[in-house]
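Example (one chain per record):
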Amino acid sequence: MKKTENGKQLSLFDIQLSPPSENEIPQIMQAAEKQREPPKENRELCPYRIPTVEEIMKDFQNAATTCSTGKLFEDTVACGAIAISNAVDFTKYDEREERYKQIMSGYRAEEQQKLPALFAKVLALLSSVVYDNGAFNDYLGEIFMRLNIANKKVGQVFTPFHVAELMAQVTVGENTDKAQNEILTICDPCCGSGVMSLAALDVLQSRSVNYARDVFIECSDIDIRCVHMAYLQLSLAGVPAIIKHQNTVTMETWDVWKTPAFILQYVRFGKYDR
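Predicted structure:
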């Protein structure tokens, strides 16, 4: 499922990353060192209109003409996760590219355009958290539950974000001071869409912790749909993390997803790659 652009083969979900120039590297390093919120007048506001959960839900419902809304959501999230992973994690490229092709082959040519269009809004919402008018929330988990596609047979119900945030405030505690260059670690062995991790990040950020540099998250879930959702939400927030498709009772592991922030800072976080 490729399209040709200037003689180059690109997937519909193609995401291309350009390395920074030598002049840009000092600016990037300086930005990474900032741990405190900038003055109000210097805040960087999101340069685009941030889509709402309701808007995205409506788009999925309207686009699902030949399959269920749930399947369209799952396939869009899966292809989006693969696109981001394949831009940085070349160790998994071939098998994930094959999975992408398999998913897209289930749609007619005119329908294949729907998935990247839907993902564009998902990406816009999830990545808005890095701007000062963005906010942490379990957006994909909320959409997942409101579209009624959870696995009811196993009692799959996601924790509401406001409850997760209260739990994070109690768990994290008031003292988040750390030694210079120390990394705070978070582990969630049954992550769902990543709500507990997102809530913890929200609390840490409110206490001036630079989570993109000083936090590492490892989480896992037995449901691959949850793995994809957690991977997307942590990746697009710029979080160094590893998400495992895993049975945490038996420790049987089927796949491992590493966020771009983890791979691009491997020198710092590679010790958690086990």
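Caption: The radius of gyration is 19 Å.
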